[in-house]
Structures are given as C-alpha cells and as structure tokens.
Amino acid sequence: MKNHSLRIVSVLSLVLLASCTTKQTGYHQDHVATNESLALPKDISLLLTLEMQAINQGMMELVPAIASADWQEIAKIGREIKDSYIMHKRLTKQQRETLNHVLPKEFQILDHKFHQMAGMLEHTAEMQKPELVNFYFYKLNEACGQCHSRYASEKFPGFSDSINLEHHH
User: How many Å apart are CA 66 and CA 122, to the nearest integer?
Assistant: First the structure.
C-alpha cells in the first residue's frame, strides 16, 4: 500500500511540474496580464537573478524528493525557499528600502504569498502529508507562473500571449 501511495505521489508530482512548466491551455483569457518589467538597480537585479536561480534549483530538487517521500529534504527546501536563499540574507538596509519603494505592491503581495506557501510546504513535509505537499508544490509553481507572466514575460516568452493564471478552472 505504501509503495502504491508513493507511486501516486510521484506521478502527481511529475504531472504538476509538467503542467506548470509548459504553455498552459484551458484558462480563461478574459483578463490579459500586463507585463510590468521591474526596473531595479543592477546590484539588486543581480541578487534577484541569483535568488530566482536558487529557487529554480530548489523546485527541481523537490521533484525527486517528493517522489521518494524524502520528508526531511522537502522540508529543508521549503524552509530555504521560505527564508530566501539570497535576498533576505545579502540585502543591505539601503537595498531593502529601495526595493520597498521600487517594487509594485502587487509584486510584494505575490512574493509574500510565495514565501508563505514555501513555509506551508515545509510544515506539511514535517507532518508527512503527501497530498498537502503536492498541493503546496503546485501552489509554488502557480505563483512562479503568475509572477513571471506579469513581471518577466520578456524572459519567459511562453507567457507572451499572457494568460492570467489567477482565473482558471
């Protein structure tokens, strides 16, 4: 029974990852997301790029960890994403102030929710709840798509036809 549950979790993880990393269909397209490029100073932009690369690596490492029910690894990655790999650790006070003034409120809300969901991923892994781990893994992927479609579609041209990931069925 346990092996059967692990297989289901593995398949669901891969399906969720595939569905979140390929061009989406089936979404309502009545609201086209706007591309609001973030104009950041070079030093902050570099830190953000490094942060995104670390998050991407963490998300990729989650797939085999979820598939093998490696609860400790899942919780560790969730905690690292929640606490930020780089941004919160390396930003100076001045850079934080700049970010608070430059970043749109909607971006800050998305970012806060993203880190909150990473914390929930950590918590559900600690509780060894595969269904909830998969749910929060999906929510993290969904948040990535929302942010990328709105603020970085030039880097992610798959979002150029701008679907709104918030309005789907």
Answer: 12
Residue of 8, 1, 13, 24 whose CA lies nearest to 159: 24
Contact assessment for residue 149 and residue 165, using Cβ atoms and an 8 Å cutoff? yes
- 168: which strand partners? 27
Structural domains for the chain: 2-159 (1.20.120.10)
Average pLDDT of span 106-133: 96
Alpha-carbon distances, residue 101 vs 44, 45, 79, 85 (angstroms): 13, 14, 27, 22
Cα distance between residue 41 and residue 82, in whole Å: 24
Instruction: Give every CB contact of residue 147 below 8 A, 6+ residues apart in sequence.
Output: 107, 110, 111, 114
* CB hemisphere CA count around 117 (13 angstroms): 20
Does residue 85 contact residue 57 with C-beta atoms inside 8 Å?
no
What pLDDT is stored for residue 21 in this prediction?
40
Q: How far apart (Å, rounded) are the C-alpha atoms in residues 155 and 35? A: 11
Weakest-pLDDT range from 12-21, 95-104, 106-115? 12-21
Measured in whole angstroms, how far is the alpha carbon of residue 98 from the centre of its chain?
23
Q: Has residue 93 got a pLDDT over 60?
A: yes
pLDDT at 51: 92
